Amino acid sequence: MSDQIPSEAPEATMDTAVRVSRQVSHPIDDVWKVLLTDEGTEALLGPGGKLGTKGQGWQADDGTHGVTRSFHAKEQIRFSWHRDQDAPATIVDLELAPVDDNTTKLEIVHDKLPVDADREWLSDRWTKALDRIADDAL
Question: Activator of Hsp90 ATPase homologue 1/2-like C-terminal domain location, by residue (predicted)?
Fold first, then answer.
């Protein structure tokens, strides 16, 4: 039996995602209700963005757009995200989980990022989105 050496490094060695998370001092029911409001979806997608059911497209005023891929109440929202008309599709996954009766963990993973993606800008964008959602839950 011979050892085989791959000719290319596996893609898993390249970080293709930005992860942002935080805990909010509100029950998951309250946080979910905020996400379903205009303010909550705009915090996530940007001004003008409206989440739809699975398979529905969305577009924000800044030109970002995509399609809702998965929508599970009080658990997860996943959508494709294009920074502009010519940008490749990336995937944003927001997961919610109760920590206890009055605390909810929110985590956004923005994955399938191209090599030249501005990860610092994206991290800041998603941090601000979670901040707005937490503030709106007050």
Answer: 26-134
